[in-house]
Design brief:
7 helices, elongated, six-stranded mixed sheet, tRNA processing
Length: about 220
């Protein structure tokens, strides 16, 4: 199997980035230990998929719509639409799967000949369909990313508290350095082994995390 080695400067950049991530991780643990809540309610975590706009000439064989859902997986939401419209689950095409405990929006494509069945769906409190348009068949990754709106609750201090300076410093760190997305439950990565990188990050072993990343890259 062909080996894809990282250049020395790339390894150095990864190491520096991981070190920044580990150093900035102290503040969140401190706040969480004091009772700060993340995803206390589904509406505390909102995910808005950014559709990919390529300016293509559409064939008219597919239609797109926006699926809004609350506290449901993408699969569960589409299963409800299938059940109420008679459209098979095999017909739905999405660019990605969205979190359950959240309010999310994403584009879904389906064959144009099923448009009338789709229009028969009645929106509810947890699932809504909107913005019907002509498009092409969606495939995995066919979007330009996701925009997140996150609410943290039950902070042990107010905005006027001196402790809030630490929060602002943390947000500045995230803005300037970013956050590595290696440890999430949905981020299995190459060969399903990315969780090993996350384990070392949590243990504050950036050196081991880089080693694992290099091994996976070489496969």
């Amino acid at each position: 199997m062909k080996r894809a080695f990282l250049r020395a400067e790339e390894v150095s950049e990864i190491c520096c980035g991981l070190e920044r991530f580990v150093n900035s991780a102290h503040a969140p643990r401190q706040f969480l230990s004091e009772g700060v809540r993340f995803k206390k309610y589904p509406w505390d975590f909102k995910v808005f998929e950014i559709p990919r706009c390529e300016g293509a000439t559409f064939s008219g064989e597919w239609i797109h719509f926006t699926l809004w859902k609350k506290d449901l997986t993408t699969r569960d939401a589409l299963a409800d639409v299938s059940r109420k419209t008679g459209i098979s689950m095999k017909e739905w095409c999405v660019a990605g799967w969205k979190d359950r405990k959240a309010i999310t929006s994403q584009r879904v494509s389906v064959r144009a000949e099923l448009e009338e069945k789709l229009k028969s769906y009645e929106n509810g409190n947890s699932i809504r369909l909107s913005d019907l348009s002509v498009g092409e068949q969606l495939k995995a990754g066919h979007h330009d990313g996701n925009r997140f709106q996150i609410t943290l609750r039950d902070f042990p201090f107010t905005l006027s508290s001196p402790d809030f300076d630490a929060v602002e410093a943390l947000l500045d760190s995230i803005k300037n350095n970013g956050v590595f997305n290696y440890a999430g439950l949905q981020r299995f990565g190459a060969f399903g082994q990315a969780f090993r990188i996350g384990r070392h990050l949590i243990a504050e072993r950036a050196d081991l995390a880089v080693t694992v990343a290099m091994i996976l890259t070489e496969r």
